[in-house]
Specification:
Blueprint lengths: L3 H10 L5 H10 L14 H8 L2 H11 L1
Amino acid sequence: TVSPLIAALYKDVAKERDFYGFLAADRTQSPYQLNNKPLVLSQALINKVRNTPGVRRALEFHDR
């Protein structure tokens, strides 16, 4: 049996998307919290990265 304080701490840690959060979720039989935060990238940044020499070579290699 776990004290209410420890159970509350486990529940709090289980909200995190990391190793200890997943362990705490297992311990409390809670679902994993993936806390997805999608990246928002501007088209200008995407074009800048896409046009760097290394990425261009990789894309050309991938197209083969």
